[in-house]
Amino acid sequence: MITSRFDSTVYTNSGGRSIRGRRWKVAAAMAAAALVLTACSKSDDSPDPKPTSKPTPTPTAEPAAFWSQEVVWEECDAAKEAECATVEAPLNWDAEEGELIELALARVKATNPDERIGSLLINPGGPGGSGILHLPSTVSRLSDEVKARYDIVGFDPRGVGASSAVECYTTTEELDEYFGSYWPANAEGYESSRAVFEPWAEACAENTGPLLGHVDTVSSAKDVELLRHLLGDEQLNWLGYSYGTQLGATYAELFPDKVGRFVLDGAVDPSLSAQEASIQQAAGFEAAVGDFIDYCLDASACPFDGTKEEALAALHQFLLDVEEEPLPAMLGGGRELTLPLAFNGIAVAMYDEAFWFIEVMALQQAIETGDGSALMTLSDAYLSREGGKYTNNMMVAFMAINCLDARAPSDLPSVEAQAAALKAAAPTLGEFWGYGEMGCAVWPYPQTGDPHPVSAPGAGPILVIGTTGDPATPYRWAEALASQLESAVLLTYEGTGHTAYGRSNECVDQAVDAYLLEGTVPQAGLTC
Question: Band of the pLDDT at 136, cuts 50, 70, 90?
Fold first, then answer.
């Protein structure tokens, strides 16, 4: 729910370009940066990007047709022992007799089918995250007991990946220019940002077609209900991370009687306005950067010294310097490290403290040698840029979904007030967070969502997980979502980083496993 003007947050509903993600993305980014720092080289042997499928309408179908379609599973390479399928859903759920789109899914079947509970659908976050691409990493983090009793099913929501997908710019050069674009955080930049966003929005409309107006979260939740039915499950079992908690909560609100075992980890507060969410997330990243600086000052390679306050000021000045004069990236293929890319390279490390040592070295390289290669590599991995190509459409779908779900006021006085509030909430990073509202202001389709509290009366017990030091989905959001959902229980992980299940400690994992396997709801107020 953040509103960063750059591509560096987990969830936003106000426009601009922001951070999103899951731990696997951080791991990939850090591993790539480590190669740059230790070997000073980067392999170009990356796979070709998986082609996205445009919304190619099929002939008109009767409303009942998609509810009775057969799911045909075939072998695929989505994950070890995985099989894949494609089903059809209506482009517009309010006109089910109209055009159809495709939804792609993959599953790893339960290893003990005799004790199978059902399907466990996963959503890794975003919006824009691919459940198919995340399937291997998710399966690797689940216990053998969970894998024995559930078919683990990843799917690409509408607009994403192998499903009928959003497409905007089609060349690496165009995408590089877009993601690296910078405009000043002032009235002049407010106007110049239009020159970045208008051609982008026009390209999205031209290359995506009518699907662009139907990738909202409510439509995706209705797709999930279709998947539940086609998979043959009486109730939906759900593991949603980050934005996946909003999609799950939306489903629960629409279909409370179909809620099975629901795990909502790294919860989003669906009641917040775009402005409120942005300010709270900026504050969350500010706190995480403060913790990182504490770590850095104790590290031998830290490019900062003095007090914590002095180090934070130096980091802020570094970003101002890059704003004024982008850094060369010796291994960046001729590109420069602009402010948006440097911001991404710093923010991505805040998702998991296990990778802070790489961030220390990346900043040392940039500040002490003037080479932005490692920070560029971190940003590239975050943006899914490998081997000179963008390998998926995560960041493209991210904006398309957010601009339909909710957006912030885009008149200049509102934008200026929001920028001031962001800077006050996050003195180190907030100055670089605002002035992205023009992105949704010029979007070719109107907002369809309405941020509001969700309650889902009649739903079965829902497990909400919050991490006290989560920068991307602040802990207060988990508290809020748990208080809104009538049947929710809050599980708290005292730690840092984004999300908890599968990356924190045995206390969290055992509590979630007991819920998924036996339906045992953790004691209210459990803290791990």
Answer: very high
CA distance 149 to 114: 8
Q: Phi and psi of 169, rounded to 5°? A: -75, 150
* Residue 498 appears among annotated catalytic residues: yes
Q: What pLDDT score was predicted for residue 348? A: 93
Average model confidence (pLDDT) for the chain? 89
Distance CA 38, CA 276 (A): 41
Q: Cα separation of 490 and 51, whole Å?
A: 39
Q: How far apart are CA 490 and CA 68, in angstroms?
A: 37
Catalytic one of 242, 373, 384, 487: 242
Taking a C-beta distance cutoff of 8 angstroms, is the pair 504, 473 a contact? no
Residues paired with residue 74 on neighbouring β-strands, in sequence order: 84
The string of pLDDT tens digits covering residues 508-526 is 999 999 999 999 999 988 9
Nearest-5° Cα angle at 236, 230 to 242 = 115
| Residue 269 designated active-site | no
448 CB contacts (<8 Å, ≥6 apart)?
A: 216, 218, 404, 405
Of 470, 487, 504, 509, the active-site residue reads 470
Other Cβ atoms within 10 Å of 417 Cβ, number: 14
Confidence of residue 14 (pLDDT cuts 50, 70, 90): very low
The amino acid present at 511, given as its one-letter code, is A
pLDDT band at 36 (very low <50, low <70, confident <90, very high): low
pTM of the model: 0.91
In 242-348, which ranges are continuous DSSP H helix?
A: 243-254, 274-297, 308-324, 339-347
Rounded Cα gap, residues 520 and 5, in angstroms: 42
The predicted pLDDT at position 333 comes to: 81
Q: What is the DSSP string of 436-477?
A: -THHHHT-SS-----------TT---EEEEEEEE-SSS-HHH
Q: Give me the catalytic one of 214, 498, 504, 509.
A: 498
Which residues 6+ apart lie within 8 Å of 198 measured at CB? 442
- Give the pLDDT score at 521: 96
- Distance separating alpha carbons of residues 387 and 44, to the nearest angstrom: 4
Q: What are phi and psi of 105, to 5 degrees?
A: -145, 160
User: What's residue 295's pLDDT?
Assistant: 97
Q: Is 176 a catalytic residue?
A: no
